[in-house]
Amino acid sequence: MNHLRNILYKIINGTLSGGIIFGVLALVLTNAINVVLHPLLLNFFGLHYYGAWTLINTVCTYIALSNLGIPSSLTVLSHVPLFEKLKIKLIWNSLFLLIIVSLFLTIALLIVSYFNGEHYILMALGVNGDNVIYKLLIASLAVLLAKFPIQALITSFNIYQRQIPGKVFDILFSGITLLSFIICYARKLSIVDYVWIIFSLNLVIFFGIYFYFRKTIKKVNFFDFSYFDSQFAAKILTGGAGFLILGLPVTLGWSVDNLIISHYLGLNEVANFSFATKILLIPYGFLNLYSVSLFSIYGHKYAQGLFKWIAASYKKGLHLLTLLNGYILLLALVFSDNIIKLWTHSALINIDPYLLMALTFYVFSLPSVNQSSALLTGLNQKKETIFFSYIELTLHIVLSIILVKLMGIAGIGVAMAISSIAVPYLFLPLILSSKYSWFSYKDSLISFKMLFLSFSPAVALVYIFNSYLFMNGFFIYKIITFVSAISIFTILSFVLCNNRAIADLKKLWSERSHAK
């Protein structure tokens, strides 16, 4: 129990994972801005263009991979002890490479526009003939390309152990999306104007970061080409390639569904899917901080030979996160329509209940998947993680295309759940147990047992209550449904799954109370 308590205390105190407390603050503020911003965009620009904006963000996610993993490579290379001049060289060459990539993509975009590639691009997106969406795409790509050089400067703060400025600028980038909307709303501008305002403010922040970096950290002249070093540039690109390969399936897996939905079901369903995933994944993002925090110390503890510490942290964290995740998902499942109405103040969003039900199974698997991935990556077992990530991605895409034709938008949720449960949920812990004798595959299966023996019956109970008993949707009936569902989930988790998570949670609370 002390393992988990110490980790949680370190997270709270901000001493774990390079000032994780500022990461928590950035996450809270970013999510708060998103919670406010998305319904405003939906109601001001309409369901169709909100869906188009969501789809174009997906396209930009793919194009963002053209940064070649340079920011991640810069982070890793900076961990090697370097003289001050070499640090500056590393930062300068990373910035130079990202500017080159940005300029290259800008030229490519101009060439496509010159040769009237608009028709083919819109046809590929499934929105042929809508010139506004093409203009929105151009503006969004301009925002993306302007951010490429900024990534190198933000990463540079971490090199000099200045996490706070980096997080502050991250928060500013989220804040300007809301500020841009306020300007747009006051001036009654279009969604294309909204994105161009974001672009302009991004440029302001870029120069702000540049001058802040020069003034407070190092007086570096970024226009001094004597810093260019072909060997440094080659090292950065080589290191970035590995991160690009590792991040590709993750990026595609999170965003490919919007393209499939747009092609088969239209932009309105893209908007519905966006809100369905947000009400489940925003709360989970806070739970995932535990796995993110552990990632940076697993390798360190392994080098010290603290295998029992690693195993205990994995086990207790997995049990608690799975239990808490189950409660949150059941809450979202029961009160989803109330949450959406309260959030959006609109009747535009209509979430398919079967989609939401399928997505809960997908999100329920994430604590196990992310815990295992963090441990494998922390122990430098990247090949296995990459291999199964690509298998999951392939299965996900194939199932999504097949099931969306058979089941509509609910098929996307089913595909996500099946691909996640069938591949990383089962196989990543199996890899860990085969490589490390101190890792117990049996302990990792607690989450899997909870999925089928306690969470599934609770979800089934919600479905039965909503479909046959409390069809009128009165709020008091929803409270009865929620209390019944979490009771079933808790009892079955404790009795059938032999889960110590509840006892661990009570003990942690008791120890914290005595400490006060």
Automatic annotation (TrEMBL):
Localization in the cell: Cell membrane
Superkingdom of source: Bacteria
Keyword Transmembrane: yes
Record bears the keyword Magnesium: no
Gene Ontology CC terms: plasma membrane
Record's keyword terms, sorted: Cell membrane, Membrane, Transmembrane, Transmembrane helix
Location (main, coarse): membrane
Species whose genome carries this gene: Chromobacterium paludis
Membrane topology: Multi-pass membrane protein
Transmembrane segments: 7-29, 49-70, 90-112, 132-150, 171-188, 194-213, 234-255, 275-298, 318-336, 385-403, 409-431, 451-469, 475-497
Organism classification: Bacteria, Pseudomonadati, Pseudomonadota, Betaproteobacteria, Neisseriales
Endpoints of the signal sequence: none
Protein name per the record: Oligosaccharide flippase family protein
PANTHER family: O-ANTIGEN TRANSPORTER-RELATED (PTHR30250:SF11), PST FAMILY PREDICTED COLANIC ACID TRANSPORTER (PTHR30250)
